[in-house]
Amino acid sequence: MKRIVLSALAFLLIFLLCGCSSVEPTVSSLDDVDGKTVGVVSGTLSEEFIDKMDLDVIVKEYTTEDAASADLKNGTVDCIIIDESKVSSIVKIFSGLKTLSEEMGKVQLSFVCSRARADLASALSEKMKDLAVVGDILKSFAKGKEYIYEPSQEKYDTVLTVGVCLAGSPYAYINDDDVLTGFEVEIAKAVCDSMGLGIEFKTVSRDEVLPMISTGELDFALGGLFHFSSSSDDLVSYSASYYSVNQMVITRK
Q1: H or E stretch including 173?
Q2: 146 contacts: CB under 8 Å, gap ≥ 6
Q3: Cα 235 to the center of its chain, rounded Å
Q4: Of 176, 178, 172, nearest to 141 (Cα)?
Q5: Could you give the CA distance from residue 52 to residue 73 in angstroms, rounded to a whole number?
Q6: Are the C-beta atoms of 198 and 160 separated by less than 8 Å?
Q7: Which among 25, 45, 105, 106 has the fewest CB atoms less than 10 Å away?
Q8: 181 exposure class (CB count in 10 Å sphere: 0-12, 13-18, 19+)
Q9: What is the pTM assigned to this prediction?
């Protein structure tokens, strides 16, 4: 009897590890997403994307991609929306999941300034076009390797206050050494340094960005930020986009 029980447990473990799931898929196309329960990792671009899209969905927030993926597999949520860069690792670990071939949408990241600082947004855009290190930073983070930009001087006559929304890796986050980094942070350091400007970073929430750049508390902001809304166009200016990322839907097979 013990041998039979152990064999059954061994079979169950193999079954789970192989990613088999008896829960039927409820999302087979983008048209199926409306009205469904959607998983998203809190504080990420995907969460902001869902808010901006104003989708008719029930949103369930998670602290990690693994937690969201596990709940998708067991049927707690119907699908998850996530950055394209995260997809391959998820479907590799959770073999019972797949990605829809259609993208949910594309996010274009930019620095955000107040309308009164449109000149700064323009200057940042112009400098980014000619700065080779921007490409080096993006390539490094794309390979999973941090690129910490070292400023060319210790002191600057002018120091900008830059708001940072912690959008997570690889965008803007605090690493294991308790250092603020991410390719958006490093690009900002490189661009401002090339303009002879210093930076003082200040972590902020997304809700604080518009009021703080409007009052001048922040010179500009970054961290998974894209077009806020048409109603905010008279309040903010955007730099040229330095990165675009597709938002994808993962569902059960």
Answers
A1: strand 173-174
A2: 140, 175, 181
A3: 24
A4: 172
A5: 26
A6: yes
A7: 106
A8: buried
A9: 0.81
Q: Give the burial class of 7: count Cβ atoms within 10 A of its Cβ; 0-12 exposed, 13-18 middle, 19 or more buried.
A: exposed
- The CA radius of gyration of the chain, in Å to the nearest whole number, is 21
Q: Is 253 in contact with 90 (CB distance < 8 Å)?
A: no
Is 50 exceeded by the pLDDT of residue 7? Answer: no
Separation of alpha carbons 3 and 19, rounded Å: 25
151-200 pLDDT, tens digit each: 999 899 999 999 999 988 899 999 999 999 999 999 999 999 999 999 99
For each of the domains in the chain, give its residue range(s) and CATH number, in order of start: 24-106 (3.40.190.10), 111-225 (3.40.190)
d(CA 12, CA 88): 26
- Spatial separation of the C-alpha atoms in residues 121 and 139, rounded to whole Å: 24
More confident residue, 85 or 232: 85
Residue type at 251 in one-letter notation? T
- Please list the residues that pair with 74 across neighbouring strands: none
Both tokens of residue 130? 């000619």
